[in-house]
Amino acid sequence: MTADRQPQKSSRRWIFLAVRWAAALLVLGILFYLLPVAPLRSALSRVPLTRFIAVLLIYLVAVTGGITKWHTVVNSAGAQLSFAASAQCYTSGLFGALFLPSIIGGDVARLAVGISRSPRPAAVVTGNVADRFLDVAAQLTLVSLGLTLLPGSLPVPLQTPAKHVLLAGVLAAAILFGFAVVLHRPLLRGRSIRIRRRLAQLRHAIRAVSRRPWRLVLGWLFGTSVQGTYVLLTALLGITCGLRLPLRVWLFLLAPFGAPASQVLATGIVWEGVIITAGLLAGATAFLLRYSQTRIQGC
Questions:
Q1: Looking at 26-30, 59-63, 122-126, 279-283, which range is the least confident one?
Q2: Is the pLDDT assigned to residue 166 strictly greater than 70?
Q3: Average pLDDT of the chain, as a whole number
């Protein structure tokens, strides 16, 4: 029975992978069909190979910062991983994210390697949860900064309504947080064990890492720097494609600010090229790290 299930699971994974890439190609084809080809080709041709390679190299430096952050946070939870092992975990996750569903797929690949390399697998899981929590905090930091600076990028008649919307959003978030604090026990009462286990895992991860608060701060700084670097690189590619917009606008959708659709699509295509190339290089790095570990163990 188990032997029969393995081929079925493998075939389902390949089917899902094929459907995912087919859907992505379909969406891309629709965009190419709806948008004028000449402006898109012109925007893409403005990105020289040297600029692409420079952005890719800076992106890889940012990935190194991400590895350092993950290594610091996971070891704070007691994973006891060497930096080489953390690099193998992180690069495996980046490579896996190219083929597995969304960011969760990358986490699955990362955890699979980390659990096999760590003497404390539970610490790898909880540390990874804490690392994702810091990633969310870093993204919220950048979005908050963008929201603070956003009204100045809008036309004068829209600046006052934008400030009102921003204030209303902050008040709504505060009210929702207050309700969550007051009603969290009644809301969890009667929930499934699976949901409770996930929440308990998150709480355990935060407590484990919070014993060393300076590492939390360091992880948040690393995460903010990495995410901010990605924004800067995207803006650099956009400028190369002909988009001249304030930097704070790059934290949001560009169309409401008058950005031409063809140039936005060209920027997205080049940026995806950077991500895919970096993911393939990450896969090669993970393979080399695993090969070197196997040789060391064999000696």
A1: 26-30
A2: no
A3: 77
In the chain, % of residues over pLDDT 70: 64
Q: What is the DSSP string of the chain?
A: -HHHHHHHHHHHHHHHHHHHHHHHHHHHHHHHHHS-HHHHHHHHHTS-HHHHHHHHHHHHHHHHHHHHHHHHHHHHTT----HHHHHHHHHHHHHHTTTSSHHHHHHHHHHHHHHHH-S-HHHHHHHHHHHHHHHHHHHHHHHHHHHHHGGGGS-HHHHHHHHHHHHHHHHHHHHHHHHHHHHHHHHHTT--HHHHHHHHHHHHHHHHHHTSHHHHHHHHHHHHHHHHHHHHHHHHHHHHHT----GGGGGS-SGGGT--HHHHHHHHHHHHHHHHHHHHHHHHHHHHHHHHHHHHHH-
Minimum mean pLDDT range among 28-32, 144-148, 183-187, 272-276: 183-187
pLDDT of the residue at 193: 62
**Residues in Cβ contact with 2 at an 8 Å cutoff, skipping those fewer than 6 apart:** none
What average pLDDT does range 213-219 have in this prediction? 82
